[in-house]
Amino acid sequence: MRSENTPFEGGPMDGRVLPVLLGHTGLPPKVYRIPVPGEQGAAPTVLVYRRVQAGVTRRLGLPKGWKFVYDPEGQPEGRIRWPWSSR
Question: Is 11 helix (H, G, I), strand (E, B) or coil?
Fold first, then answer.
């Protein structure tokens, strides 16, 4: 599988560049979750980062690349909620 060095902005990972696996379309995932173990019996936490465009080309407006931005209120479970479902 291919990976791409992707920058992270905000939160504890601010300024870091990590290799992120690309999907079959050649794009990194829309949401990147980083599990962080808790210290000595504390509950583990999950850092949530969302994919955004890093920039666009001048002529066609195509994305130049991607970066991940910290989402402090992100849903760590990430389950899709359909409006017609009862759960």
Answer: helix
